[in-house]
Specification:
Helices cover 70% and strands 0% of the residues. It has 9 helices and no strands.
Length: 146
């Protein structure tokens, strides 16, 4: 039986991590947890978290919450849903956790964002609006402005 080369192992690991990231992107509004994601690629939750962070710079949970906040920002800009409705629509089960994470990533609470950004991207193509409005963590913003 042939022993896999280090390069083939590395590529296999990257493929597994890409599948996890793709699943989070696709199913972010579904109930997901790190244990379930890890089972899908036959890893322990701890190992998946460490490997994912090493490759993508953040934990699977952090990546999931960023995707949820991005979607929430879009829904809040539309203005036809309440903050609570948006919270549940993006897959969060706790309004408090959602609001805390949203504020951490965006810099203002969801209700303030909703009031300030209604119609802010009118006339801008959606591909550009998504890029311009992507949340930046407060600690990343401080690093970028230095």
């Amino acid at each position: 039986m042939a022993v896999p080369s280090p390069d083939s192992e590395r590529l296999r690991r990257l493929e597994q991590l890409r599948r996890v990231r793709d699943r989070i992107d696709r199913d972010h509004a579904q109930p997901l947890d790190v244990e379930e994601l890890a089972r899908g690629v036959r890893m322990s939750a701890g190992h998946l978290s460490r490997q994912f962070k090493q490759v993508y710079g953040e934990s699977p949970y952090s990546y999931l919450m960023t995707r949820r906040v991005e979607r929430a920002m879009t829904l809040l800009r539309r203005g036809d849903l309440s903050v609570t409705e948006v919270c549940f629509a993006v897959g969060c089960s706790s309004l408090g956790t959602f609001s805390t994470r949203f504020t951490e990533l965006v810099g203002v609470p969801p209700s303030v964002y909703r009031a300030q950004s209604a119609g802010a991207t009118d006339g801008i193509p959606s591909c550009l609006a998504r890029q311009v409005t992507r949340p930046v963590r407060n600690r990343e913003a401080a690093t970028r402005s230095s």
